[in-house]
Amino acid sequence: MPKHIYELEALELIKNIKEGNLRVYEVVEEFLERIEKVETKINAFITLRDREEILREAKEKDEILRQGQAKGILFGLPIAVKDNISTENIRTTCGSKMLYNYVPPYDATVIKLLKREGAIILGKTNMDEFAMGSSTETSFFGPTRNPWDLSRVPGGSSGGSAAALASGEAPLALGSDTGGSVRAPASFTATVGLKPTYGLVSRYGLIAYANSLEQIGPMGRSVQDTALLLNVIAKYDPNDATSLNVKRPNYLASTYNVNDLHRKVRVALVKEMFEEGVSKDVALIVKNVVNKLVSEGFLVDEISIPIIKYALPAYYIIAMSEASSNLARYDGIRYGFRAKISGDWNEVFSETRKEGFGKEVKRRIIMGTFTLSAGYFDQYYLKALKVRTLIIREFKNAFRKYNILISPTMPTPPFKIGEKIKDPLAMYMSDVETVVANIVGIPAISLPAGFVSDNLPVGIQLMADHLREDLLFSIAAFIEKLTGLRNLIAKI
Amino acid sequence: MRRKIVITEKLIEHLSWLARIRLTEEEKRDFIKDLNRVLEFFNEIDEVNVKNIEPTTHTALLTNVLRDDVPRESLPLEKVLRNASEKEKEYFKAPKIL
Fold first, then answer.
1. Residue A292, Cβ neighbours under 10 Å: how many?
2. Kindly report the CA angle at B54 between B51 and B60, in degrees rounded to 5?
3. Which of A105, A383, A439 sits opposite B45 (nearest CB)?
């Protein structure tokens, strides 16, 4: 039986559109129908674009195609975008009441790039408020549900993007990753997500949470689709002062470059990342994948990086400090929510932020205000930055000997909605495997490793040295072949 | 040597003022509990010896990115003001400061 259109990988859709086997209109129409069918159960989107407007755009694309004028490597492909990435004339809320009515006057650089390559934006996906969370439960617009088990979280903060992929609502998506926000939901939904090297993808138009840590990242249901999307968004951008002006390889080509990898690539497991707080099931499933690599001739060592123990507290100190500074801009004056009270500046400002921010955002701003305040700055913020230096040093050392470091992506399978939301520390602990890549600024990818009790996804995380996304994609593509876990859509 | 720090109601009120976020009584109570636990977790980094270690503020593999100071087109006023909750003529309208 032929597959439904929504079950095709992005690369297959693009090929079929290009060759005239599928019209853009029917592709887009099918995704809209799929969304209509499952969205009430999943809640992956905060804002969907107007149906007529999308279909009109699809028709225009078909006409361009008919005239032989089609350009762009994503031509006609529908895509979902996380709601902290600015889209001109499409509401962008960051999952917050503070921005519930904010319509950006400009496109983020990555959105310009998507449009240039012919992609069609379906809508904006749900997320933890201001990307502060690991479960997509702190959204002002309600939690997103995990398509594999509707009683569980999809991970976060890019949970809407991941859930849209795993439910067949979109073939490709953008997320953002400050401490694991692309990889956590990829792990929890059996999809693929990459956090690029800091500076590889422009942050211009990404609404800031912790800007020294975050990157926009590509998300897909296969390693190749994810690589394809990175090809589109990884461009130098003078509008982002931290954008790297370096040559970017063809990442999709890297996914085909899988011959003789065992001779070229040195792999290590990081001991500490399989120990404290990691569930036995998860460790076992990830080690099974590693055993498959060994069977293919890879030499896999186990290494110890003891300082990794301090990555999580250092990360949260830095992230909350940066957040308290970044989110000072929400004063209710220039955009966003404004409390309906009369009073002086400080009163209106304080009331606006009381009513506009959710509890986790307030908690982090208050804590970040503390770590940056006089008397505590040296002991917390400055010290965390120094610990960061030491962690970077240890990882650079490890990369002198090894090309790829392996760990689980998440310490547990997807947890229940409501299970951790009342206990902030328990929630923070779920980032224990992912934050280190953000602290060091290196690329990291999560892809499916297996399932616990048939339907709870477990992801494997690969980390590489700065700017070695090419290597990550080669190994990830190889692993994907070994596991056969590719293009997985949950039955809903 | 590290001082023992406890987040008290007085400190929460001070932070709430610095951050310009009014907190309800319930939030204050919750935050004193939560933030003391978070602080304990932060204190784990006390164990790390960072003598003579420089801080890292970012990992962009870059220093001092400069560009020519050339005037560029900015967003049209109409677009800039579109999201403001209150405006008058060509201005954002803010609450009184003095």
1. 15
2. 150
3. A383
Please tell me the distance from the alpha carbon of residue A78 to that of residue A27, in angstroms, as a whole number.
Answer: 8
Is A221 in contact with A487 (CB distance < 8 Å)?
A: yes
Within 32-61 of A, beta carbons closer than 8 Å to B belong to none
Structure tokens at A32: 């809209």
* Chain A CB contacts of B83 below 8 Å: 101-103, 105, 334-336
Nearest CA to A482 among A266, A234, A223, A132?
A: A223
Give the separation between CA A152 and CA A166, rounded to whole angstroms: 14
Return the H-helix or E-strand segment holding A464. strand A456-464
The three-class DSSP label of residue A34 is: helix
Element (H, E) at A178: none
* pTM for the model: 0.97
**Amino acid identity, residue B24?**
T
The model's pLDDT over A39-94, given as tens digits with 9 standing for 90+, comes to 999 999 999 999 999 999 999 999 999 999 999 999 999 999 999 999 999 999 99
CATH T-level assignment (fold) for domain A5-259: Amidase signature (AS) enzymes (3.90.1300)
Task: Set out the domains of chain B in order of their start, with CATH numbers.
Answer: 1-44 (1.10.20)
DSSP A120-160: EEEEEE--SGGG--SSS-S-TT-PPPBTTBTTB---SSSHH
Angle, vertex CA B7, rays to CA A323 and CA B9, nearest 5: 105
* Interface touch B47/A241, C-beta < 8 Å: no
